[in-house]
Amino acid sequence: MKRFTWFNAVSLTLGFAFLYIPMLILIIFSFNESKLVTVWAGFSTKWYAELLQNEAFLDAAWVTIKVAVLSSTAATVLGTMAAYVIVRGGRFYGRTLFSGMIYAPLVMPEVITGLSLLLLFIAIGLDRGVFTIVLAHTTFSMCYVSVVVSSRLVSFDRSVEEAALDLGCTPFEAFRLVTLPIIFPAVLSGWLLAFTLSLDDLVIASFTAGPSSTTLPIKIFSSVRLGVSPEINALSTIMIAIVAVGVISASLVSKRTIARQAREKREAVRA
Amino acid sequence: MRAGKSFLILVPYLWLLALFLVPFGIVFKISLSDTALAIPPYMPTLDFSAGWAGLRDFLSELDFENYVFLTQDDLYFKAYMSSLGIAIVSTLLTLLVGYPIAYGMANASERYRPMLMMLVILPFWTSFLIRVYAWMGILSNEGFLNQFLLWTGIISDPLVIMNTNKAVYIGIVYTYLPFMVLPIYATLEKLDGSLLEAAEDLGCGRIEAFWRVTVPLSRPGALAGSFLVFIPALGEFVIPSLLGGSSTLMIGKVLWEEFFSNRDWPVASAVAVVLLLILIIPIILFQRNQQAAQEADK
Amino acid sequence: MSEFEAHAPVEAPPSEDTAPIGPPAFAPWNDPDEKPLIQFRNVTKRFGDFTAIDDLTIDIYAKEFFALLGPSGCGKTTLMRMLAGFETPTEGDILLDGKNIVPVPPNKRPVNMMFQSYALFPHLTVAQNIAFGLERSKAPKEQVAARVDEMLKLVQLQKFGGRKPHQISGGQRQRVALARSLAKAPKLLLLDEPLGALDKKLRGETQFELMEIQEKTGTTFVIVTHDQEEAMTVASRIAVMDHGRMVQVDTPDRIYELPNSVYVADFIGDVNLIKGKAASHHKDGKVEIHWAEGAPPIVGTPMAPVADGTQCSFGIRPEKVHITKKLPEGKANIVRGKIVDIAYLGNISTYHVKLPTGEIIKAQTSNNRRIERRRFTWDDEVWLWWSETAGVVLTG
After folding, report:
1. Which end of chain A is more exposed for a tag (fewer CB within 10 A), N or C?
2. The pLDDT value given to residue C7
3. For the sheet containing C333-344, what is the strand order?
4. Cβ–Cβ gap A1/B268 under 8 Å
5. Using CA atoms, how far apart are residues B225 and B177, in angstroms rounded to an integer?
6. Can you tell me whether residue C390 is helix, strand or coil?
């Protein structure tokens, strides 16, 4: 079924050019000698050097990573629990409300989520800082984790769990020894998603951060508002590189896993 | 086993109640309060020590004044309308850009599809902020787009795109494109090729077969993608504040400024409640579309 | 004894030899004045290195129910898709009513196809599906509506016009697909494994329905199937295909009784094949086959002249092998063996009899009486025999 081959080629080329050229320009001009970001003045890595000496950025990066690790881990635990409850929980009181609360944050404008959490923290007198950002990030990213994990839970054969129970496992053992290993790839990608969302978040963090807990997006946003700067280009390039390496190696690993499984299957058939 | 199950349900349940539902209650409550020069900057505050009487006093002082204010100052009405306008236009533009990409992917050879898929998803994993920022250098008056167009001679004066709604459209299309491409791709990839052959066999030309078969059958994906772009675009803050100008009115930006610059928490809360009410309609429509698509799959 | 056994085709190619089967009511392929509807002329189709159709020439006549039969990958689907216009031959011409249709795109051909998956448009109702092709030909509205009603009636789905495809059963979907492809009154209807998705019982009923509809509409049907029973039931002629070639094209009875090769004999129905060397021709054309040291030769009827000493196979259908406990007297081909397996199928039983030379020969008996005491059981020593005209000698 090959249709409009030239049309496909053109639309794919244009589409991916549109997606990647802006980032490419960003990366190229992070190596620009000049402070003027739109005029090329020769190759230089001085903006990287300057970035690495900028304490404010480094502090913000450290806060961001701390928040992302803590919140994504908490979100993965809570989100997996929530997914398990939604898919395997059967009926319980308030189930509709529960699933509503799981899906609502996915479509909620960030400004509203941020505002409401801030008002909560003020109402209960919680000082804003790393802890409040972690709470906020955990809340919205656990919903993403639960969506990812529940789609895996839905598609897997329940009788495997029942077999574990039949062979004498307690429900918790069945989960730990059978269910968790099977859904682990989904849990892992849920964690990665939560981690990325936390790294990325500007709006909710702005609402829930205290003066001493500036995250990297907040820092970037406040300096970007003033205009384009080569230092930010350098920082962006580093972040893009980390993500690209991460995503590409993850896909290579999964590709290799699939290839290995296919090979093992073939060998099993031959034997 | 019972206890285990209750624990499993209770932990995420209570977490969401405390950090999702209760905060909304607070937003709603504050939207009914009055602005005050105090900390926190609104009135009344609930005084638990006064008991029932305190609660009654508290309730009696709540009113819809802030909502009335929203209707009186046409800044807010304009902001809602312009947000809707921008969200609709940019959703349509994203559909226009995204459909051919999804179509091209679905018709690419099976070997390349996983790679194309990864190429679409990859930008999604990189920082949203950085992707918006990337356009600042491109769209400005002396930016790359203008440099390029002037160099080719297509234009003789630089285009003014930065700090206008056009820049906001481009920003939204760019950042939300994966949300549009992926659901459309999913429906197109599932499309049974024999349906198109059947249409041709029954007398359709290729383009007619596309309109009569491919388009209607990919509608659920296009709708899902449109909602996935429209809903967040409506409350978007980062894009209008970085790419839009002072004349770009979007409700997310208004809310932010109301809260951080004017410190008018009750009005900001009222703005949030109204935004939520507006969003409920597309969210319900989205849910229905998803359910219908799921049932059709069965 | 079947009437076929009474006759032995003597050195004559079987295609000219129809008299013994009795003059068929419908056999345009034997009429030199008849013009074929479809002609493949030296058609070859290659996909890269793979040759799907190999220099194929065949005529198909109007009102035929023509079956393309073969294992998957034999080229039958490619052949059909070339008729529909979804594939273009690498070499050769395809003629419809004497005109070359190779350059004609599928939407301009008076040929319609019923897809294996049915390919019903899920977003349209049953009636809209049937009307789809008619609307493309810009027919006036009333005419379309009348034709849709007519088609719904033909496939007995009058009540289901307003339903969507997912709201009807698999058998009904199959009939909608048939109605849709027949609505434009095509000169030629192609059916790609039309009954493959139905369960066995429904398939049987639908086969007769298909034949009835084919007769009623007078449309030429070309059906692709891998199910030999289905092909035998519905087709006026069967083309057995293998590796892009037509191995044999003939009526179902002749394909079964007079296969021209080991491949066809083996593909259609069950057959015992015994390898040997041809020798000592009889005057009436029969030939002796020496198949094992010390065993008496088998006497059989060759499909084509065989020279002495040629390697050949003797093929005989299990139902034509008789099984007895006592030595049969005055019979031509007699062998002795031991029963190693019995397959009881209700209406018939098949005995697998092992000869001292190692060959296993299957013999079938029909179970005429209810709960009859088994006449034979495992390890019984039995005699097998068959008449001189019961089997065929195959060289291909």
Report:
1. C
2. 41
3. C322-324, C381-386, C333-344, C348-354, C360-366
4. no
5. 9
6. coil
Of the pLDDT bands very low, low, confident and very high (cuts 50, 70, 90), residue C12 is very low
Check CB contact under 8 Å for B200 and C106.
Answer: yes
Judge if pTM exceeds 0.95: no
Q: A with B: how many residue pairs have Cβ under 8 Å apart?
A: 231
Q: Given this model, what pLDDT does residue B158 score?
A: 85
Q: Which value does ipTM take for this structure?
A: 0.87
**Nearest CA of chain C to the CA of B2: how many Å?**
41
| B217 in A contact zone (CB under 8 Å) | no
C15 pLDDT above the threshold of 70: no
Q: In percent, how much of chain C has pLDDT > 90?
A: 55
**Burial environment of residue A210 by CB neighbours within 10 A (0 to 12, 13 to 18, 19 or more):** middle
Yes or no: say if C219 and C168 are a contact pair by the CB < 8 Å rule: no
Domain A54-215: which topology?
A: MetI-like fold (1.10.3720)
What does the domain layout of chain B look like in residue ranges?
34-63, 73-297
Nearest chain B Cα distance for residue A186, angstroms: 16
Q: Where are the beta strands (DSSP E) in chain B?
A: 34-35, 42-43
B38 touches C at CB < 8 Å? no
- Give the β-pairing of C392-394 and C298-302: parallel
CATH of span C3-262: 3.40.50.300
Chain A touched by B17 (CB under 8 Å): yes
What fold does the segment set C263-394 form as a domain?
A: OB fold (Dihydrolipoamide Acetyltransferase, E2P) (2.40.50)
Q: Which two tokens stand for residue C392?
A: 């065929």
Please give the Cα distance from A116 to A122 (Å, whole number). Answer: 10
In chain C, DSSP finds a helix count (H) and a strand count (E) of 8, 20
Summarize pLDDT for A195-235 with one digit per residue, the tens. 999 998 999 999 999 888 899 999 999 888 887 888 888 99
Neighbours of chain B (3+ CB pairs under 8 A): A, C
CATH superfamily of B73-297: MetI-like (1.10.3720.10)
Query: Tell me: the pLDDT tens digits for C171-210?
Result: 999 999 999 999 999 999 999 999 888 888 888 888 999 9
Query: Which residue shows structure tokens 């080329």?
Result: A13
Q: What is the dihedral angle through the alpha carbons of B85, B89, B94, B99, rounded to the nearest 10 degrees?
A: 130
Query: Strand pairing of C50-60 and C38-47?
Result: antiparallel
Question: For A46-100, what is each residue's pLDDT tens digit?
Answer: 889 988 898 888 999 999 999 999 999 999 999 999 998 888 877 888 888 998 8
Are residues C190 and C84 in contact, defined by beta-carbon separation less than 8 angstroms? yes
Residues of chain A positioned with their CB less than 8 A from the CB of B265: 119
Note the pLDDT of residue C372.
64
**Amino acid sitting at position B223:** L
* Window 1-40 of A, Cβ < 8 Å to B: 1-5, 7-9, 11-12, 14-16, 18-20, 22-23, 25-26, 29, 37-38
Which pLDDT does position A4 carry in this prediction? 54
Only one residue has tokens 């390039």, namely: A237
**DSSP 8-state class, residue A43:** B
Those residues of chain B that have pLDDT short of 50 are 1
CA gap B233, B252 in Å, rounded: 9
- Report the pLDDT value the prediction gives residue B51, as an integer from 0 to 100: 66
Question: Which has more pLDDT, C301 or A100?
Answer: A100
When pLDDT is averaged across residues C18-37 and rounded to a whole number, the result is 74
A267 min Cα distance to partner chain B (Å): 23
Contact across the interface for B242 and A224, Cβ inside 8 Å: yes
Segments making up each domain of chain C, as ranges: 3-262, 263-394
**What does the alpha-carbon distance between residue C93 and residue C270 come to, in Å, rounded to a whole number?**
36
Nearest to C119 among B195, B205, B219 (CB): B195
Percent of chain A with pLDDT over 70: 98
Nearest by CB to B133, from A12, A172, A236: name it. Answer: A236
B199 and C137 in contact by Cβ < 8 A?
no
